[in-house]
User: Fold these one by one.
Assistant:
Number 1:
Amino acid sequence: MILQRKSFLVLALPALAVLVIVSIYPFVACVNNSFRFYDLTRPSEGKPWVGLTNYGLLLGDVRFWHSIKVTLYFVAFGVGAQLLLGFAMASLLNSLERVSKVILPVFLVPMVIIPVVVGLNWRLMYDQTLGIINYLLNALGFPSQPWLGSGFHAMLSVILTDTWEWSPLVFLILYSGMKALPTEPYEAAKIDGATGFQILTNVTLPLLKPVILIAILIRTIDAFKWFDTIYIMTSGGPGMATETASMYSYLIAFNFFNIGKGSAFSVLMLALVNVFCVFYARIIPREGGLG
Amino acid sequence: MRKKQKPLWYLCAALVILLIFFLFPVYWIFVTSLKTRVQAIALPPVWIFRPILSNYIKVFSEKTFIRAFSNSLVISVAAVFLSALIGIPAAYAFSRCKFRFKSNLLFWILSTRMAPPIAVIIPFFLLFKDLRMLDSHLSLIVVYLTFNLSFLIWLMRGFFEEIPQELEEAALVDGATDLQAFARIALPLAAPGIVASVILSFLFSWNEFFFALILTRKVAQTLPVMVSGYIGFMGIEWEKMSAAAVAATLPVLIMSMLVQKYLVRGLTMGAIK
């Protein structure tokens, strides 16, 4: 113990005080508003206490359940694709050690570009008549696709963009995990005559499990909250095909100005994210990191 | 790991495909920003052309762009500076103290970082509306504290924990106070971690869109919101939009390449080192 109690307070108190204000205040206000009728377009009605009405409204709202379904698709297929691609990339670069140093920075680029710019750029590329993707498809003999025009395609496009943006993160997490793996199990497996596939399923995957879990959790939490590129590319459309929970809750609160219902939505999302967070805190080892 | 003597050709082919997939979109927006309007929407696409800089000149002569650029700069710098000022000492305090409920406290700090933005912004929007502070720099700076502060505490705690305590203990034996040991020994030793955390924090603030979309209109509009406004002109001004997008991205792209070693650590809140 280096710090005395008094010094601990001197160093930590300002930050903790600010954190309490910027995190407890919104939380309390959110829960409070979720129990009220609170409509910014009808200020004359005040904000009377209505109990669980907003939660009832939300749970009886078909569009709410639809947004949950869209979010689940987005998270499941997006994170799934990113895991597969990230794992493939990590294995590939792990066996091409000499080039990996030079190439690694390239994969950092997608995730540091402003997400709005990522969305705009892909929107240009997805453009049905002038976009480069349809041009390349045509050049290869395939018909043009309505990338952001049909519900099915829009979902696919949104997931593809997310995969472009975030597979590199999954890759780098898994790659640093692979670098830290011990060599002995591999030598033993080789001596025992294991095939490449057996080594993968019986040695690599079990050893990498904690790192894979971190990648899944980080991406699940982020994808669950994701807004920027979806807002830019489809704004939840066409129709409601890509309207995720974060998109719909945004519309409720800031397009329909129904603060009460929006707050109830926020509280539900907060509860869900906190469940993920508990898992996340569990797998982060106490003394710092993995890999 | 297993060593392969020579890279096989199919591995190299896979690598090339990956590089094309990840680099082509970046290349495409960059070349679009160097094209004339006609070239930008030409079909078939123009692959070889004489690059022009006039889109950038146009963008930088626009008042809204310059204002958004300086807004982004002021808001990000202020938010990061304030967070670092109180967050780094707090991180040190957490790394050098043991007490009951410490892990609960740290979990709470992590959870403020992970909270869905919508839950944070509705109350702040109402608060700033009542205070008549919507569309002000200060409102955005306050909201950006929510994620920067928890990020800096969580990440810097990890960096401080990597510094052996013996040096500080030696200073205490020599008669320094514990706060002096922090300021004169731990702080300089943690400098690389501080630089990395601060740059990443700046990156998150610079790229942030959701809060800025809701809290700003014109006066305090940041770059991502300003650039998103080009959607209205889609199909008309691709080349100008691309130039603005590249100009907005370049500063943080360069900065984050300087701390690439720590990028994954930052994005996983220190779980991966």
Note: Chain A touches chain B through 112 residues (CB under 8 Å).
Number 2:
Amino acid sequence: MDTQTLLTRLSEAVGLSGYERPVRSLIREAFGRCADEVRIDKMGNLIAHKIGLGSEPRQRVMLAAHMDEIGLMVTGIEGAFLRIARVGGVDDRVLLAQPVTVHGSKNGEHDLPGVVASVPPHLVDRQDRDKVVPIEKLFVDVGLPPDEVEQRVRVGDLISFRQDAVALKGDLVSGKAMDDRAAVASVALCLELLSGMYHKWDVYAVATVQEEVGLFGALTSAFDVNPDIAIAIDVTFADQPGISDDRTFPVGKGPTIGIGPNFHPLLLEALEATAKNQEIPYHIEPAPGSSGTDAWAIQISREGVPTALLSIPARYMHSPIETVAIRDVERTGRLMAHFIAGLGPEFMTTWPFPTARTHSD
Amino acid sequence: MKDTIKKLVEAYGPSGYESQVRAIIREEIEGIADEIRVDALGNLIARKGKQSADGLKVMLSAHMDEIGVMVAYIDAKGFGRFTPIGGVSPLTLIGNRVRFANGTVGTIHIDEGMGAWRGKAPDISKMYIDTGATSPDDAPIQVGDAAGFVRTMDEAGDRIIAKSLDDRISCSVLIETMRHLDALGTSTHAVYFVFSVQEEVGLVGARTSAYGIDPDLGIAVDVTLTGDTPDATPMAVELGKGPAIKVMDGGMLAHPLVKDLMIQRAENAEIPYQLEILRGGTTDARAIQTVRAGVPSGCVSIPTRYVHTPSEMVDLNDVQNAVKLLVEILAQPINLDHEP
Amino acid sequence: MKDIIKLLQELSEAVGVSGQEGAVRDIICDAIQPHVDDLRIDALGNIVALKRGKGQDRLKVMAAAHMDEVGLMITGHDSSGALKFRSVGGILDTVLAAKRVQVGPERVPGAIGIKPIHLTQVESARQVVKQDALVIDVGASTKEEAQGVAKIGDVATFLTPFVDLGPTLLGKAFDDRAGCAVLVELVRGQTFDFDLYAAFTVQEEVGLRGARVAAYAIDPDAAVILDCTPANDMPKKKDRSPNTELGKGPAIYIMGGRTFSDRRLVDLFTASGEADSIPYQIRQPGGGGTDAGSIQVAREGVPVVSISVPGRYVHSPSAIIHRDDFDNTIRLVRAGLSRLTRDTLAR
């Protein structure tokens, strides 16, 4: 499958935090093709294990990209209208008039197209025109009469953003959930490349759950996998019209590699060396504290895990029109594959070295 | 059950100082539990039942601690400045009484008197505790002493008004559930009843006790808000409509399999229930869920008005139905083997 | 005690911002190596050193002090040759203006300048200059030159020479180099009955990170955390709170941030203070946490107590501690630990 198709399918699949099943089956297929075994843990993390060719005991590298997306949840039904709450960090400012799908679970499963209701300008008080409507005051309208809504929808049902992925000029793709499906795509590409390469270490590619609501999947899967090193892959802020500062990076100029307390300096060094060798463009992205990604949770698992972060620049983060460059997705996949192929048994065994790990399965 | 509730809600036990509550609970369950222990941080852990071939290790958690205040400084005239323990709202303090571990009672007031604060939001840093002392030397309290609110329990028909229903009402639900399981005789699951410490200051006790127990399933029992008071933030939970099965709160999403299990059992046994989404706040379940490699967890919530005030209110029918629901869940085999 | 003051000076002047504690780590490893039975560096860079005890059926006691200090991270270079930065850990914008800093592994001197008061509008003169409007001037005049001086990700700290003021000492980073020095002295001193795990932790200032994994690895029966706590004893208009004061002895925590010290450990140290006539104070409850927050919730839970050297102006370029408080902290911690037995922790 070509990258654009993979990215499109992943972006359009539904998988809100805590309820990742629909997108998970798609990812299971994508990762499973190149892995030796795939399993789903108690929390819903998808863990694909690709066995290395080194002699036992083999070290483990964990890759983590989160499969959950932000969205909404039905908190009440008032006549024909649904009250909503956020699942993850949804930006209130982008909600008005957004197309959504209500996943009704009463009397069967119903995917109901709807819209976040907005009061037309004619009816809004002058003084309220410039105010953001807080989410507690918003409603979703599925265009059905009250009794039909009552038959299909109940409190707790999920609502996803309804958005097709679209190719823009310049090899960009715009769609919902590029955070973090673009990263998931890069992991799939990495596994595909590794199938044609010789690698000594064991690879655990994890599509994590519930990153958007507390990094929960990363925390628990890192404990489970107990890796020697880990790389988290997420998206980062991209330059976009009107915004450019040292917190944003150009789209189409490669992934960023994180520097800061969240990341191990030797991993950073090795990733940079790989990028330079493979002529993959990249930028260094500073994080003075928490990176706000799965890397933050993985680093403090058990006795500590040397961790790195690769980020794909994305415009309009946490809105349904997130935009990434296909070649950045591919570069990230390539960077990981070549880095992993270069891992030998001596890597990270001299200072700063992790304590001797016991892999009790 | 009302007697147990009364003893518990009126007891002293701000976060970090739960020993009096622990003693009361211990007395209630001595002789019913199969084994009882207290761990390093003070959690009271009581096991009931043995894990059978198709049984699980289940952890239930209700927290013993209540919100309160801690003395930070005693001034030259014997007035005590204080800092909150847990989520104390300044709106609930002026004119309220607090009680310390040794029984000392003090009243809270504010600099310059109430007149100066008309139309302004009261500020905790401007408040003080008056125990009747005249100097640091005759003050019956010192820096570091912790106090909880002091109120007796009142009944209002089927409803109870008391302080610390959060979360002593859930402690009594756990005790009652243990009694019911005891009466049943047989056991499918090993159920660990954890009466946890320091929930109000960061889910501390639940996290560490869950690590130690390493359960297959976690169920917290805590209070949740309601949407049935004047101009309340809309919420689909009301007093008297049954225990609430948590879907989502400010800190977590209930595991779908656990949520569905609870709904199924409630419907099978015709126990009224409500579905809960709480916009702010969370429970011990969040801490249990992320220990080790993860624990599928959920929460049975007791709808409660006026949470974190000295006069919280619950409906006894909801409380009794919560017990029924827990027994219904625990008295039969549970299968969590599906993909979540 | 002269030797320990020299060590404190070395530690204070070393650069060790959260995530890049190497220089501090090296000093401490050299100081404690001859006195410990085992020393290792873990995946995050913590030092965990074991000093085996002389008793039977030994307890595992963890003592922790953090090596990292708050500082600045270089995040970009502007066209005029200045360095852009963001703070690592909690530094108030109010203390940044017009301070000397040292940048990068070469410790290149620089300054954080602001617009002269003469050229500033009256209204703005009363406002704090926000961090994102500040830059570091290292004397470069182009972006390329600036890039040659410091890379993105390099760290900078305040440039504050250590000064002995007599009864007090002035320097940067006493939070928590003072705690580290106390812990070094403990490790260099008598053997206890229990096994002492001395953890010099990393990244406390960005979320108690190092202590979390160190505690998981050690899995101790109890932990003492040594830090440096704000002394707020300047003249006040109202009789509100002195918080902790300089000269009144080590400050014992009953509650720091939202973490409760174990009451039995608090009583152990206060009783030891009374018995051995060592002055101590009770640190004002609330506000500001220590590594105790993450150690307490390791695995099945760890009883903790924090004891700090009082310091004025912590998290600013120049802090002040009192020699006596520093010495008494060493004495008090030693006195309490030497009385710690299984019975102390029995329920």
Note: Chain A is about 25% helix and 25% strand.
